Amino acid sequence: MKNAARLIVVFALVWFAARSAVYLLPGNPADFLVHESLVQIPPEVLRQKMQLDQSVWHRLFSLPRTVSLISKQNSWSLVGEGFIKSLTLAMLTLMLSACFSVFLLYMSFVSKRWKKFSESFSLTLASMPLFVFSPILLLVFSFRLGWFPVARNPVLPAFALSFYLTGFWFRTLSRKMEAYLPQSAASGARARGLSESRVFFGYVLYPSLGTFMGFLGTQIGTLLNGSIIVEIIFQWRGLGSILSDAVMSRDYPVIEICLILVTWITLLSQQLGYILQRKMEPRLS
Amino acid sequence: MKTFARLWLGFFFVSMMIAAYFSPEIEAFTLPRTLQFGFDVFGRSCILLSLDAAFQSFKIIVPIGFCCLVLAFFVSFLKTIDRPVFQFGWNTAIDTFSSLPGFLIALSFSVFLGGQFWTVLLASAFLVVPYLIRFFESQIIQLQSQEYVFSAGALGATRMQIFRRHLLPDLARSVVSIFPFLMTRLLITETSLSFLGLSSDSAHETWGKLLYQGKDYLLEAPWICFFGGLPLFLTLLSFHILSRSE
Asked: Is the C or the N end of chain A the one with fewer CB within 10 Å?
């Protein structure tokens, strides 16, 4: 109940911040927009489109019902299309990153030599920014080998993003695992002669799944942050790419809606992560 | 590993200082033919450009890092106010800030705020400050349990006096241990934004801008990306190694 109230307050704050951001523009926002806009729109029409002809309070409490200034498409449908594409990319990335991280965790659990390798590998991945790593992947797998098409394919961008995230996730998760190991039943299970994989999956990973879910919930923001670079490089028309284009072309209605949607999705996923964590680890609640 | 990180950072900073000294006329320089590792699309030497880009990137992130630290110190001080309602609000605000996609929010607000510096500052504030605050928070909790802090409170020192005289010096010392992490985050934020064309409005190149330029000539002139990407990768790797060993 407390969390729901908190979430509603934060949702409202985000809404007001996004709806009032236009008043940060210097001077009269409507005049500024007319000068800044790339398309020639009469000032009265632009005022009406941006709901700037209404009072500030009315604008803050009303729904943005505008069309994109550039593509003339409905902003909600434009952002909705981008959202579906971003969701596809995000789900694929989450899956891949979780698999890579669990694999590295398993390797570091079973042998000390592999632990060193996993740590160095994750360090290298975390040090390679997306805009360095993605062109290399594009050059090798799309241009040289021709395995993936350059655009309209989420697999290669998902790989790029998941490699980058694995670098960070492995380090955080291994720290969490190290903290959990002394209180786990892993040593007892090992002493009973169970195989390493059964000990890892049954006595280490499964009991600490709640902590991992909570952590994954907070990572949606990082995922969306990273997706913008990847979407631009791989020409995947998701939310990040739409937002970047809208920023470059000063398409204010699209920016407003993107801002609200992206922030709400992140906050919701974080709450979902916490709920899952509490369900899986009842002692927390 | 640690030696490599220190050696690279040492070499890198000396080269950067030289580049900083010659920065205004760096584009007019010509290197001997054997030292020329390729040119960018405007015919400038990539190796000199990369050094200058490093200097330009650090010129942006150092003041921003300072601003982030000051902000984190200030917000950490608020943590010492021991009232349940305030603590609840404080925790909510920090949790919310740390989970938001700061990069996208900064990108959106860059249109409304105008200046390029503010975009990087806002993105850094979202991406770095919550981590710094959490770090300082844990330090404050540790320090508050120390006897000398209890004694200061018992002798009638105010919250501000305790923070200024006893907590702040220790917190300032702990900045050293978080410094490599701070630099890594800021460097990634700045280069990502300049890769999108939103970081620096000066005529000088930064690493991100160099990579953005090289992206379009990946097949014809891969060395542009190479000279932008390799030093950045090595610098980030060195900072990561140092942050892990702290």
From this structure: N
Closest residue on chain A to B228 (Cα):
A132
Residue of B nearest to A258 (CA): B108
d(Cα B221, Cα A26) in Å, to the nearest integer? 42
What are the residue boundaries of the structural domains of chain B, listed by start?
2-8+44-243
**Nearest C-alpha in A relative to B213:** A131
Judged by CB atoms closer than 8 Å, whether chains meet at A228 and B105 is answered as no
- What letter would DSSP give residue B34? G
Q: What is the pLDDT of residues B72-123, one digit of tens each?
A: 888 887 777 777 777 777 777 777 777 777 777 777 777 776 656 777 788 8
Output the CATH code of domain B2-8+44-243: 1.10.3720.10
Of A26, A218, A259, the CB nearest to B99: A218
pTM of the model: 0.81
Q: Are B200 and B110 in contact (CB under 8 A)?
A: no
Q: What end-to-end distance do the CA atoms of chain B give, in Å?
A: 13
Determine contact: B39 vs chain A, CB below 8 A: no
ipTM of the complex in this document: 0.79
Contact (CB, 8 A) for A79 and A239:
yes
